Amino acid sequence: MLLLLRRAWAAAASRRGTRWCSLGACCSYRLRDAQPDSLHHLPVHPLWQSPLTIPGGTRQSPINIQWRDSVYDPFLKPLKINYDPTTCLHIWNNGYSFLVEFDDSTDRSIIVGGPLENQYRLKQFHFHWGAINEWGSEHTVDSKFYPAELHLVHWNAVVYPTFEEAVMEGNGLAVIGVFLKLGAHHEGLQTLVDALPAVKHKDTVVEFDVFDPSCLIPSCPDYWTYAGSLTTPPLTESVTWIIKKKPIEVDENQLEAFRMLLFTSDGEEEKRMVDNFRPLQPLMNRTVRSSFQSRHLLNTEVQPKDHAEQIMP
Ligand SMILES: [Zn+2]
Fold first, then answer.
1. What's this model's pTM, rounded to 2 decimal places?
2. Where are the chain's structural domains?
3. Separation of CA 231 and ligand 1 centre (Å)
4. Which residues surround ligand 1, an ion (CB under 5 A)?
5. Which residues of the chain carry a pLDDT beneath 50?
6. What is the pLDDT of residue 48?
7. What is the CA(306)–ligand 1 centre distance, in A?
8. Rounded to the nearest whole angstrom, what is the distance from the C-alpha of residue 185 to the centroid of ligand 1?
9. Which fold has domain 24-293?
10. pLDDT tens across 169-201, in order?
11. Which among 125, 122, 113 has a CA at the least distance from the CA of 157?
12. Residue ranges of the Alpha-carbonic anhydrase domain (predicted)?
């Protein structure tokens, strides 16, 4: 009896541990059983250590995308991207990431289609990344982290007069998420990487004109989409997320260039800009839709039957 009680207590403690894991219960199995020990304790940026930055919303981001749980939606259209490279203005180190900002006073750089009812204007793009290659992305796929994630932020200028107003509304923003994986050198990204030393310190801005960020978006049209939030304050639940299925490849030196940036201003004690991602948030009552049919489902539901029919005596 005592043994049973002890076992029950241990199981409850284990569940409590899972709940407190910053990665959420959904991914605890894989982390506990398949990942190196360091992933038990992902670094948490000071921004996310304060209870003030934990709102009680129902559609917070980022999330873990469970491939098998995503639902194919045949009515999702292809996403059309049309950026004018001359709308690119500058790069800004804001002390949390670096932002490449665009002139959004007209409809010159826009996205349309996909899950969106309106046309959305490009405002800025930025990245999130880790101190090492084992983590860094905000979203995960089947609990897998990528070393970095690109976010291209657009706003609904059809419905709202300003970006600031769009940020507060459910259909105000559309963010394209692109995972970065370690691989081949990325020529398009290198133009950006070459400019980074000029914005090493917080609050530095450097002119960066004529850049087309569509070179950072994989040509594969497949994406997941869900209703979520900003992953930095004010964390408003205003984002239609469009997460590209296929990552882009970048090389180690390019990721290292990100890690050379600083959270700190000139004259302060230097703190490397790394691990600038928000912890995963619960899916709650949401469905992740996919623009493509899941190979995972085909594998589990169709193939075994086909295979059985093909068995020869
Ligand atoms: Zn972001």
1. 0.83
2. 24-293
3. 6
4. 151
5. 1-37, 300-313
6. 82
7. 43
8. 23
9. Carbonic Anhydrase II (3.10.200)
10. 999 999 999 999 999 999 999 999 999 999 999
11. 122
12. 27-292
